[in-house]
Amino acid sequence: MKVLVFVAHPDDETVFTGGTLILLARAGLQVHYLVATRGEGGEMGEPQLCKRDELGPLRETEMRCAVQALGGASLSFLDYIDPLVGKGDQLFPYTDDQDALTQQLMDHIQRIQPAALISHGSTGEYGHPAHLISHAAAHKAIAVLADAAPLFYTFSAAFNGHPRPRLLNKPDRAHIVLDIASAHDQKSQAALCHRSQNALFVRRSSKRAGRPLKVPEVLATVESLHRAYPPVENGSVDDFIARALKPWTKKNAEFEPK
Question: What are φ and ψ of residue 53, in 5° steps?
């Protein structure tokens, strides 16, 4: 069976849900990746790895490396341009045309024919406008496809003990919480593929720890999913995603939704 992962930028797939995607691939599912931009507005590395106009091609190469590390089946881009970060670290969406984005995503869904779609959560993790419009497009695509829609899951779902509270989507109750320790080394390999962003990955955690941290040290070993479609009636899920991830799923008694 096929799963389609739709994210705004290269590295979103690894940072937010890399372990989950590794485990899905281990369970025998084909995991396909669709990225809206090439992250042209992101950091260029410390020390600097490229010029600004070279960052998009570099990050595409990094993304291909990461998909291979994650055990992915394919990678496609929608060719949107990631805006530069503004004054005061202001962030921007990569498009204002949600309808066109939704149609492009629907076209990709109809081409790949995934049984499940995984994308950003309802609050964009930390409110990133690019994550928010990606979620909105995914939500609308599922609504338009109706009975022909795949399952729709979102990552960084909320539960007590979430390892990165700043990055959780508080309205999205976690239906699946995973111990991804067995996938941590592989997730670290994928994260290290994103060389231009590695300094960004560790900066906040290093400051908090009071010492320089390495990329593997800052990656979460617990991840979570919320099933947005079809709605969950009784608080638990029993579908092919849940069954594929069952060996690594924490029991409900081990966590409570926020």
Answer: -75, -5
Q: Kindly report the number of other CB atoms within 10 A of residue 238's CB atom.
A: 10
**22 exposure class (CB count in 10 Å sphere: 0-12, 13-18, 19+):** buried
Residue 64 CA to residue 76 CA, distance in Å, equals 10
Alpha-carbon span 8 to 95, nearest angstrom: 11
- The CATH number linked to 246 is 3.40.50.10320
Mean of per-residue pLDDT scores for the chain: 96
Q: Is the model's pTM score more than 0.90?
A: yes
Q: What is the pLDDT of residue 123?
A: 99
Contact 63, 75 (CB under 8 A): yes
Question: Of 240, 228, 5, 227, whose CA–CA distance to 109 is shortest?
Answer: 5
Query: Exposed e or buried b for every residue in 109-118, given b needs 16+ CB within 10 A?
Result: beebebbbbb
Q: Which two tokens stand for residue 226?
A: 């919320």
Grouping H, G, I as helix, E, B as strand and the rest as coil, residue 36 is strand
Range of the domain at 20: 2-254
Q: Are 221 and 19 in contact (CB under 8 A)?
A: yes
- Total domain count for the chain? 1
DSSP sequence for 155-175: ESEE-TT-S-GGG-EEEEE-S
